[in-house]
Design goal:
Helix content: 25-40%
CATH topology: Hypothetical Protein Ychn, Chain: A
Largest sheet: 5 strands, parallel
Number of helices: 4
Number of strands: 5
CATH architecture: 3-Layer(aba) Sandwich
């Protein structure tokens, strides 16, 4: 076997050049909107958290940004905790709540489909994080259409 002579990696080392930005830093023009939709299950993958973070970035770039939770996406907006609501049972357990609250605190709007809440997941409006607006199932399509008419940036998130 050849002998390895390279020093092992250590905390603080860089693997990539994370400071070089290839594209210009785009900011919203006055009145521009963005919509991020979620049809994904909480804790089933990273896309739920990643696109909440994208929504926060869009909002900070000046877009009037909304999040639409429908189907299994409503599970991102539910209050959770153990042993009581709000408690973090394991590191990262409250990532969705923390970041949705941050997003709403910075002016973002979050909508959740009432049909998915009750019919699919057995929850009522009281299970949602404070600040999330429950909407009729017919509003899901109209929310998307209104954003399309406004030429909004739309990030659709689906997982299966």
């Amino acid at each position: 076997m050849p002998k390895v002579t390279k020093e092992p990696h250590k905390d603080g080392d860089f693997f990539v050049d994370y400071e070089e930005k290839v594209f210009e830093d785009v900011k919203a023009d006055a009145g521009e909107k963005a919509l991020v939709t979620f049809h994904t299950v909480a804790f089933e993958g990273s896309i739920g958290l990643v696109n909440i973070l994208n929504a926060i970035r869009l909002n900070r770039k000046g877009y009037e940004t909304s999040i639409l939770l429908y189907g299994p996406g409503v599970t991102l907006g539910l209050q959770r905790g153990f042993p009581t609501l709000g408690d973090e049972a394991f590191p990262g357990h409250q990532n969705f709540a923390v970041n949705l609250k941050k997003f709403m605190g910075e002016g973002g709007k979050v909508y959740a489909c009432r049909f998915a809440l009750q019919a699919l997941y057995g929850h009522g409006e009281g299970s949602l994080l404070p600040g999330i607006t429950p909407i009729a199932p017919q509003d899901v399509l109209d929310c998307i259409l209104l954003h399309k008419k406004a030429n909004a940036v739309i990030l659709d998130t689906w997982t299966v």
